[in-house]
Design a protein that fits this description.
Rossmann fold, globular, alpha/beta, 9 helices, 7-stranded parallel sheet, 250 residues
Length: 250
Amino acid sequence: MSDAPVLLVTGGSRGIGAAVSLMAAAKGWRVAVNYAANREAAEKVVAEIKAAGGDAIAVQADVGNAAEIVSMCQAVDKHFGRLDGLVNNAGIVDQPQRLDEMSVERIERMMRINVTGSILCAAEAVRRMSTKHGGRGGSIVNISSMAVKLGSPGQYVDYAASKAAIDTLTIGLAREVAMEGVRVNAIRPGIIDTDIHASGGLPDRARDMAPNIPMQRPGRAEEVADAVLYFLSPTASYTTGAIIDVSGGR
């Protein structure tokens, strides 16, 4: 059996998650590519990794469902026999709305997937990686957002609040498991050219926002992945509880 490290990427079938999965595989990680519904997209990422000589599997789970998170991690255990890294990437936005227009159902779904899901995934990772539980240590990278600093008024205040929770999770958990071989860090992407904007009803948002970005362009998923891979790597061995903005200066 290979001794190469194993990485679980939630929401790994598209956008930033797919870029992280591909880049990690190229750097020697075996990768579990999580997806919620689009198996074809996940299998495409897996096929690309395997074509390049890497090792990967697609694992279905809706991170808004606690039981499915447990099943996902058990599938990783069964296939790879270890877990060395988690990228908490899965998340959603919704249609642009003011807070006073949002339904309870929308807000609860946002928090269930973006916050509770990330917390539960991190907990499963700690149970496998922490030396307290007999693990070998590891790294968790949470995907936050520049919305934490900007607030997303008139569009996604609920999303911004959910990502603020991710920042706090990162800092608190990093300190909690620092003596157990587990590092926890986060990336705050700015406007990145992925299809998440289309899922929120604004398919041209990345292009339209370019004039408001100091670098005058949206970022690429690969530019976020580069920062994620830094945190996963031994180069970041003395870094935990840190948050890097990948936002073009915004």
